[in-house]
Design a protein that fits this description.
heterodimer; A: 191 residues; mainly alpha; Rna Polymerase Sigma Factor, Chain: A; Arc Repressor Mutant, subunit A; 9 helices; B: 187 residues; alpha+beta; 32% strand; elongated
Chain lengths: 191, 187
């Protein structure tokens, strides 16, 4: 028998006709719709399973904290979560660069058992193709890299991605178009 | 779900579920964050003894950017050599625009709560971090020139906000967190 949760996972949609009874249930649906893509986002950036686990955990802790302020009329939960994830990752990079121990993270370090480490390592391997594309984008400005990633890898609409990055739709589309043109030119030059 | 995602959800629900339940559903705690308020005119919303002010963008602000000091008709932002930031605003003017500039400078936005009457103490109010582990600079907000602002009849459309105001409090949030929050004012 297929449960509502499995259906939500399989179709990436909220089960119809059964509105969540509590904020926790509502957030669980957000979690189920997005846990995989969020892990993929960090798996493209980090090779260490524990880091992927910690950053994914921290993103959802922040999201739970801000869930009452989230307004679905202004954009999808996925775009909202990517905005948080980008911030979490930026903070992680700052901490790493300054040598500070990232234990200060909201969720601390998660303890993983062997199975979980293997699962996440598989995710990191699976994200290799996406990570390779991101490496090709390495010379692009950060916002153009993010534009390519959110739209071409994650499948967000331009409007959603613009919201996630905190830029206007017009500015975002310009960036995306410029990023694609640069990648195309680089590809042609390499050929 | 994988074992990791299942266990993570279980931990999240156990450790943060109660706080989530108290905070309410999305949109139920409408954001008082001025940067998210869709603009029209000066908007006032009464919540308990405090007022959360949403202010319009003041078009035509000619920025005079001098590295650490931004001066417009609507606001002044000054960042000292030590990194601390002072935002000077008037409630009838634009904190939306000030927040946009602040975001560009330090990747943070401020949220202010105003109360009626003059400020008990003249001077700026120091913002408290809206989230744990924020490592940004100290941000202070000064209302008017000394912490008190008086809006007289005829100064605003429909005489909205007429009275004497001071800052009750100020919070600062990371910009990335502000992306898709609520749109209204109030508590």
């Amino acid at each position: 028998m297929v449960t509502m949760r499995e259906r939500a996972l399989a179709f990436g949609t909220q089960p119809r006709g059964l509105p969540p009874r509590s904020p926790l249930e509502a957030f669980e649906q957000v979690y189920l719709r997005n846990i995989d893509v969020l892990m993929g986002y960090f798996a493209r950036r980090c090779r260490e399973p524990h880091t992927v686990a910690d950053l994914t955990s921290e993103t959802f802790i922040r999201a739970m904290d801000g869930f009452a302020r989230f307004d679905p009329r202004r954009g999808s939960d996925r775009a909202w979560l990517f905005g948080i994830a980008a911030h979490v990752f930026a903070r992680h990079c700052e901490q790493s660069a300054s040598g500070r121990d990232a234990v200060a993270r909201l969720g601390g370090h998660r303890e993983l058992d062997e199975d979980e480490i293997e699962e996440i390592a598989e995710r990191i391997d699976a994200a290799r193709e996406g990570a390779a594309l991101m490496q090709q984008c390495a010379r692009l400005p950060a916002i153009e890299r993010a534009a390519i990633e959110l739209v071409d890898l994650e499948g967000l609409t331009a409007k959603e991605a613009a919201l996630a990055l905190g830029v206007s739709g017009v500015a975002f589309r310009k960036r995306l178009s410029r990023a694609r043109a640069r990648l195309r030119k680089e590809h042609e030059d390499n050929d | 779900m994988t074992k990791f995602s299942d266990r993570l959800w279980s931990d999240l629900a156990q450790e943060h579920g109660e706080a989530l339940a108290q905070a309410g559903r999305p949109g139920s705690r409408r954001s008082r964050r001025p940067g998210l308020i869709a603009g029209g005119t000066l908007a006032l919303a009464v919540g308990g003894t405090a007022l959360a002010l949403g202010l319009t963008a003041n078009g035509g602000a000619s920025a005079q950017v001098g590295g650490v000091r931004v001066v417009t008709d609507a606001y002044t932002i000054t960042q000292s050599g030590s990194g601390s930031v002072l935002v000077q605003i008037n409630v009838r003017q634009s904190i939306v625009a000030a927040n946009a500039k602040l975001s560009a400078l330090i990747k943070e936005n401020v949220v202010i709560d105003n109360g009626a009457g003059p400020a008990p103490t003249a001077g700026p109010v120091t913002c408290t971090p809206g989230e744990p582990n924020m490592g940004g600079p100290t941000v202070k907000v000064l209302l008017g020139t000394n912490g008190t602002e008086v809006i007289t009849p005829g100064e605003t459309g429909g005489n909205t906000g007429v009275g004497t105001w001071h800052l009750i409090g100020c919070s600062v949030y990371p910009t990335a967190d502000m992306g898709t929050g609520g749109t209204g004012t109030g508590n």
